[in-house]
Description:
The protein contains 25 helices and 30 strands. The longest helix has 36 residues, at 11-46. It is globular and about 110 Å long. The protein is an alpha+beta fold. The strands form eight sheets. Strands 1, 21, 22, 23, 24 and 25 form a six-stranded mixed sheet that branches. Strands 15, 16, 17, 18, 19 and 20 form a six-stranded mixed sheet that branches. A hairpin with a 4-residue loop joins strand 7 (461-462) and strand 8. It starts with 10 loop residues before the first helix and ends in a 15-residue tail after the last helix.
Amino acid sequence: xxxxxxxxxxxxxxxxxxxxxxxxxxxxxxxxxxxxxxxxxxxxxxxxxxxxxxxxxxxxxxxxxxxxxxxxxxxxxxxxxxxxxxxxxxxxxxxxxxxxxxxxxxxxxxxxxxxxxxxxxxxxxxxxxxxxxxxxxxxxxxxxxxxxxxxxxxxxxxxxxxxxxxxxxxxxxxxxxxxxxxxxxxxxxxxxxxxxxxxxxxxxxxxxxxxxxxxxxxxxxxxxxxxxxxxxxxxxxxxxxxxxxxxxxxxxxxxxxxxxxxxxxxxxxxxxxxxxxxxxxxxxxxxxxxxxxxxxxxxxxxxxxxxxxxxxxxxxxxxxxxxxxxxxxxxxxxxxxxxxxxxxxxxxxxxxxxxxxxxxxxxxxxxxxxxxxxxxxxxxxxxxxxxxxxxxxxxxxxxxxxxxxxxxxxxxxxxxxxxxxxxxxxxxxxxxxxxxxxxxxxxxxxxxxxxxxxxxxxxxxxxxxxxxxxxxxxxxxxxxxxxxxxxxxxxxxxxxxxxxxxxxxxxxxxxxxxxxxxxxxxxxxxxxxxxxxxxxxxxxxxxxxxxxxxxxxxxxxxxxxxxxxxxxxxxxxxxxxxxxxxxxxxxxxxxxxxxxxxxxxxxxxxxxxxxxxxxxxxxxxxxxxxxxxxxxxxxxxxxxxxxxxxxxxxxxxxxxxxxxxxxxxxxxxxxxxxxxxxxxxxxxxxxxxxxxxxxxxxxxxxxxxxxxxxxxxxxxxxxxxxxxxxxxxxxxxxxxxxxxxxxxxxxxxxxxxxxxxxxxxxxxxxxxxxxxxxxxxxxxxxxxxxxxxxxxxxxxxxxxxxxxxxxxxxxxxxxxxxxxxxxxxxxxxxxxxxxxxxxxxxxxxxxxxxxxxxxxxxxxxxxxxxxxxxxxxxxxxxxxxxxxxxxxxxxxxxxxxxxxxxxxxxxxxxxxxxxxxx
Length: 918
């Protein structure tokens, strides 16, 4: 009778549960990664750029595989060598305290664990190789750049190597050198552990505990480690071009005359030490390598550190200006070239005070485009007047120029994008957020210098559906791709999409574009469900065979996936081109490896090499090569030949809306503050260093766009301007302008003021406005009437040979968030005036008023009793000091009446806030 086997019935379900948990723990993340990989490929294919995806992944895999194979070879081969030379018996001097059976026990253990050790060696080698290969795979772009490097055609001033060697080749060599040191150290440690396990190393015997073959094996590995250090010193020689030791970035006097010879000496010593370690195979003991390594360490401390420090302290510091002069000159030249400042023109500007009313009238075309609406202020007004529904939003307001009535006009423009997080809480369902509410709608645009009778923007295009003047008619107002489209949507489904609100109802639509990844098949549904964590994609009955998924729709993500090697500008802006809304964004090629160039914002080389357009409806994304001479762009184009389109193919309608990017211009202005000085002595002493207005207070004045004819230029142009002040002073020293129009795009001119005169700077002008006897009381009155007085950005406007300061003034009622443009402040020479529009304020500076247009009410002239206002103001102060509050109140009321007359037609007690109902 066979015995009865009793089993635990709970074991099998428990084991099954463990298996399921393990599969879920490791399987789901893998499936999620696989789904993301597949859908990313489909996304690239939808854009016609699957070549970018394939090239990137093949390069990544090839890099990882190459370094992984090398790592495995070094680890496993050396471990197998160690195993093959393992002693069969251990002959050692065992301490008296050890049992007599020690050798027998060890031999038995070694025989039983030998196969286990072999398996451990194999899998540890595989694991470390995979880890080290994966770590290097992220540097695939570094190696591809090195292999495809385009020359700069310029040599560095210290070593005579092409700049491309430092930008492309040196980073790859540095990555290899660092990795080689790590893998060699790991190999030596791993090999030593194997020898230890095999008994070939007996720690209790100290240096005598190394078997002869172990000493030979480890000597070779240590020699290779030291040799890798010699290679490290070799690369460090070229990296002196980025040394921060001196006054500026780049090899300084000490680097060239002390550090460079020291590195060459250390290379020789490291090579000798490596040879000594290898030669030591034929000698007993460790004396020879220990002496060599001691000499190497000593030389590293003395020659590599102590000697250069002594040279810096006792040779350079006492005569630093003269010692560093040639190296500062190198830095100035390289920095200006790296930031593309070597072709900046400099022109003197008299900043005269001879402007007349006739000059003002002669420059009406320029004055018509002086910006009076700040984008940030206009954004508040746009949100209050044009948001229409709470689920729409304007991310920001941008500045561009358009031809209207045969004249070029500066325009504020913003796209009305969808924000589904602002839907009513009960409406925030998966269906609404991903299938119904799929897109924003339309643009809002207004001239930058006009306001209606209520002080609000004069909209050239607005409302839903868009109500526009002829030049701003929109054929396709739907916005599926933009700055805020950061979620996926499914189009062409069985349910209609919300298009735009109509009264209490809504208009509906179906997407007619070609963009999107088909999602009808069950496999693709599952992939997208895993990617987005949305099982509804699998089970929704609205998703049909021809449905498509639009994802990664925001511009920043879109460009970063297509070209991660580009640095994308932070301000994409919409343009209306041939009736379609097209986003334009600038992108830069950058480097931090340009020899002798100073670092700013983490880089020391930048070019605006690429302009990018994204169609707001169908997502068509085009990268336009805008600087074909840029070697970094040339190199990337050789890696991805079909990604960047030739500059010659840019349509004129698109090119007309290109702007010089503000991020780049502000960076160049930051560099130019110091690097306008080209004489090394002046540069060292910082005798003529500049700064931005307001920089010392932590709020530097930002550059701004203008549409005007600048001094010395043949015609009106769309420009960007950045004023400068001397360091630690508030007066203005000059300004830089850059042309944004196609003909002279990128032309930069710096206008410098006379050194012998003080030209008021923006902060000084602001102080004068606040202290003006006429304006200050008026501002106080407005504030006391429940309104907030908001000063707009102060603009420096060149007019003929003079400089005029213009600052818009807004009022905002406490109960609303609608700023209204009510006055324009003008400061010229010693005069400060405030009026309802810019021309009136300018003419008031000269005691004149513009003639009224036929049928239009003219701006009244200045009252003859203007001095009466000052008299009343002083009397009110006397009454206040005397404590006569009744008299003070009476005088203040009379003063308010006089000021209202001086400023023009009376304002209401509070700004108008009759906002049109939604």
